[in-house]
Write a structure and sequence with these properties.
The protein is an alpha+beta fold. The chain has four domains: 92 residues, 3-Layer(aba) Sandwich (Rossmann fold), CATH 3.40.50.20; 57 residues, Dna Ligase, domain 1 (2-Layer Sandwich); 127 residues, D-amino Acid Aminotransferase, Chain A, domain 1 (2-Layer Sandwich), CATH 3.30.470.20; 98 residues, Phosphoribosylglycinamide synthetase, C-terminal domain (Glycinamide Ribonucleotide Synthetase, Chain A, domain 4), CATH 3.90.600.10. Helix content is 30%, strand content 25%. The chain is built from 13 helices and 22 strands. Helix 1 links the parallel strand 1 and strand 2. The chain binds adenosine monophosphate and glycine. Adenosine monophosphate (AMP) binds next to strand 17. The site of adenosine monophosphate has 13 residues, from strand 17.
């Protein structure tokens, strides 16, 4: 099988690494890819959001399968376009990707089908939203823009003033453009967060090993929200009982709800969950693998990923036994100094062999934002690398990852020193 992978971050590197382990794969293409990915796949400089460009590339390369990884092209309908041209694909069509593309949609779906989530109201009018906030008079207040916003469209307002500013910035100031022309105001929930990615063919849902993201920029969950500064899997807080509860109350009802709505979801569905005192609730759905969750979940997958994507395409996931390793995996993200705000790019990275890996192979380095210039890997994004190790225990996996991080450097590299700490200490 020749396969084209759309995207170019650490998550796509993890997908490609897993695909490259399959005996069924002949050739991997990636667009746009990055420096590290170029060692496993032939890369083409077409942006993931350039839908026409991606379709054209697929028509030129004629792959047997196209794996659409990031949210924007999924929400924009790349899978639909590729299917029209006869390509087999991995990833939901636009009418199912809306689960991530519109919070107003996903919240109303959960309300309609009784899927546990924070109570909420939606608004397009700033005055009405502010009236509601004042009447609720309950802080923190959670204000979310409807559409995609690079993970930045959620504001946790600590008081009335912050809440009013958030509402005005979205509904009047146009801070998130069209994505913020409608907002959701919801109840603040408490409890630890768990990510569960799940394979689904629209009928059957097979949850993957659970994981824990670390979203804030600095240690002890301080600083700004980022795309994710590190992950561990499995998440020890997600016990067998919690998994059974989520399967019954959240995973199966979501897949069934989407099917009933005429929007069968095929691909990887991301459940962002909070284990609240009243039980597990949905914080958000994403229509794709998490980044950097994929980097710790896929290395624990024992089943051939190609068998899984084919089973999903052919809607026979119920017949496939998806198996996982017993061990643990940890990923420490090395980011550019200044991320998630302003940061430099083009800095040389040292510590790598010619493949952009550590010579001793003690950890695997997923490249998130790198480019290859001659023989040198340069930084090319906010999140640069995801340094990842598997081991029988989480403690050993973390030790291996951090040791490897110590061997890699670029100017002003920033990484958290407490990835997995909460998971280890309970
Ligand atoms: P989201 O982009 O919806 O995942 O939100 C980003 C982060 O904001 C989540 O990972 C949570 O930490 C936090 N968050 C979102 N919604 C809520 C909520 N209703 N209550 C408490 N925290 C929330
Ligand atoms: N790591 C969070 C996300 O992928 O949305």
């Amino acid at each position: 099988m020749d396969i084209l992978v759309v995207g170019g971050g650490g998550r796509e590197h993890a997908v490609i690494k897993a695909l490259s382990a399959s005996p069924k794969i002949d050739k991997i293409y990636c667009a746009p890819g990055n420096g590290g990915i170029s060692k496993l796949a032939e890369c083409f400089p077409v942006k993931a959001t350039d839908i026409d460009g991606q379709v054209e590339l697929a028509e030129k390369l004629k792959p047997d399968f196209v794996f659409v990884t990031p949210d924007d092209p999924l929400v924009m309908g790349l899978v639909d376009r590729l299917n029209e041209k006869g390509f087999r694909t991995f990833g939901p069509r636009a009418n199912a990707a809306i689960l991530e593309g519109s919070k107003v949609f996903s919240k109303s779906l959960m309300k309609k089908y009784g899927i546990p989530t924070a109570a909420y109201e939606t608004f397009t009018d700033a005055e009405k939203a502010i009236e509601y906030i004042k009447a609720q008079n309950s802080y923190p207040a959670v204000i979310k823009c409807d559409g995609l916003a690079l993970g930045k469209g959620v504001i946790i307002a600590q008081n009335e003033q912050e809440a009013v500013e958030a509402v005005n910035s979205m509904l009047i100031g146009g801070k998130f453009g069209k994505s913020g022309s409608e907002i959701v105001i919801e109840e603040f929930m408490t409890g630890p967060e768990v990510t569960v990615l799940a394979f689904t063919d629209g009928k059957t849902v097979k949850p993957m090993v659970s994981s824990m993201d670390h979203k804030r920029a600095f240690d002890n969950d301080e600083g700004l929200n980022t795309g994710g500064m590190g992950t561990i899997a499995p998440n020890p807080l997600y016990t067998k009982d919690k998994a059974d509860e989520c399967m019954k109350n959240i995973f199966i009802p979501t897949i069934e709800a989407m099917r009933k709505e005429g929007r069968p979801f095929k691909g990887c569905l991301y459940f962002g969950l909070m284990l609240t005192p009243e039980g597990a609730k949905v914080v958000e759905y994403n229509c794709r693998f998490g980044d950097p969750e994929a980097q710790v979940v896929l290395p624990l997958l024992k089943t051939d990923l190609v068998d899984i994507i084919e089973a999903i395409d052919e809607e026979r996931l119920d017949k496939l036994d998806v198996q996982w390793s017993d061990g643990a995996c940890a990923c420490v993200v090395m980011a550019s100094g200044g991320y998630p705000e302003k940061y430099p790019t083009g800095l040389p990275i040292s510590g790598f062999n010619a493949d952009g890996q550590l010579a001793d192979g003690s950890a695997y380095v997923y490249h998130a934002g790198t480019k290859l210039e001659g023989e040198t890997f340069l930084t090319a994004g906010g999140r640069v690398l995801g340094v990842t190790a598997t081991a029988p225990t989480l403690k050993e996996a973390l030790d291996k990852s951090y040791k490897a991080v110590g061997e890699i450097s670029f100017d002003n590299a920033h990484f958290r020193r407490d990835i997995g700490k909460r998971a280890l200490n309970g």
